[in-house]
Amino acid sequence: MDIHEILKYLPHRYPLLLVDRVLAFEPGKSLTALKNVTINEPFFTGHFPHHPVMPGVLVIEALAQAAALLTLKTSNVEADENSIYYFVGIDNARFKRPVEPGDQLILKATVLKERIGIWKYAARAEVDGRVAAEAELMCTVRPKET
Q: What is the count of structural domains for the chain?
């Protein structure tokens, strides 16, 4: 899945779109995506000017976006103005190594279960085959409140 198809499913746009390409997709089971981390990312200006590191919360957000793609593409639900994909929980988040400019962040999301419209995933971010972060994420799609 290239960036054009990703934009059909995710409502995120620059500077908060954190998935560049989907490398593998198994409907209802798993998705592997890629984020190319460059020095041009706006967060590196302040985090940290003399030693740029991608904020851990943004690594988790990238994982949540990969999980969203897994759910939305599995359900064949494209982004629209009537619904929103909510990040509703995170458990067991761990950060194992910093993510720096020049890294290719591999984002892996695997469905653990789905119940009453709430999806739970095992999520892992890797750089060069080494774990950068991992967590269990919970997300849901709901109608947008007016």
A: 1
